Amino acid sequence: MIPRKFEYFAPRSIKEATSLLKKFGPDAKILAGGVSLIPVMKLRFGSPAKIIDINRIPGLEYIRASGGRLNIGALTRHAELERSKTVKDRVFLLSETASVIGDPQVRNMGTIGGSLSHSDPSGDWGAAIIALRGELTIQGPRKRRRMKVDDFLVDTFTSALQPDEILTEISVPIPPARSGGAYMKLERNLGDFATAAVAVQLTIDPKGVCTSAGIGLTAVGPKNLRAEKAENVLVGHPLTPKTLEEAAAAAAEDAQPIPDPLRGSAEYKKEMTRVYARRGIERAISRAKGGKK
User: Is residue 291 predicted with pLDDT exceeding 80?
Assistant: First the structure.
C-alpha cells in the first residue's frame, strides 16, 4: 500500500516548525527519522494531512558532554550514538542500547528524539533513559520546558508533548567512577522488537555496596516502566547473589505485561524480565568493577 495524499512542509527553524504545528493541530505529524511514521502511513493505520519534516532544522543533531551531563540533540541517529567514542567512554549503556535497535538501515535513519516521542512501549530508548534518570527538553511556540523522562512517557504511543511542541534534547547525567550499565534484550529474531528487555545503570562503592541504581523495562507494560521496587532492593545494600536474585524478582513484579500471540504469555514475559534483569545487573556490576564491555 501507499500513503494517502498529504501536504509536506520543511521548516528551517524550531520556531517555524512549532508555528506550523500550532496552525495545523492534530492534522500534522512530525517527520524525524521516519522509521515509525512512514510504515504507519504506508499501511494506512494513520493518515496525517500535513507532514512537517524537521530534518532541515540546524542544531538538532549533536552529542555534547558538559557540566557533568551528556546532552543529545533529538535528531541524533541511533547509529551515531552506537559509534560515538564520547558515548562509549562516558555512558556506555546508550551505545549498547543503540546497537540492538532494529537493523543497520533503521539505526542509520532513526532518531532518539523520534523514538521517544513515538512512545512505543517496545521502544528501547525509553528504558535506557529511565535507567539513567534522564531529562528531556521540549520546545513550543512560546516557551521551553524540561521534564523527567518518567513524566514524558505517559501511555502507549502517548507522550507528554502538546500538539504544538517538539522534543529537542535528551540529557543524562554522566555516571561517576565505579559505575556500569547494561541493556539486555530478548527478541525472536535479530532486529525484532523486544519480547522483554531490561536497562540497568548502577554505581557501587569500594566495599561493594550499591550507592545508586536505575532500572528500566521494555515491552512489559503500557509504556517503558521504571522497576522502582528492584532499584530499592539494590540501593544501600551489598550486591550479594541473594540481593541480585531479590532485585530480579522485584523487577518481574514491577512488570505489567499482557499476553501476546507472537511473543508469549504474560507469565512468560514476567519470567524473562526476571532472568534478563539478573543478567543485566550482573553485567553492570562487572563493568562497574572494570570488567570488559
Answer: no
